[in-house]
Amino acid sequence: MDSQYSSQPESQNNGGRSVKKTLLFVCLLILGCLTLLAQTVAGPRAVQTTEKSAIRVPSQEDAMALKKIYSNLGSKTDRYWFNAYSWSLTGANAASGPHFIAMPFTPKSNSTVEQVQVAVLYKSGANQVNVSIYGDAGGVPGTLLAGPVTVTNLAAAGTCCTLTVANFTPVAVTALTQYWVVADTPLSGTGSDFAGVWNHVAKDMPVSFNRGNGWHPDSADGLPAGEVLGTIP
Question: The pTM is what?
Answer without folding.
Answer: 0.71
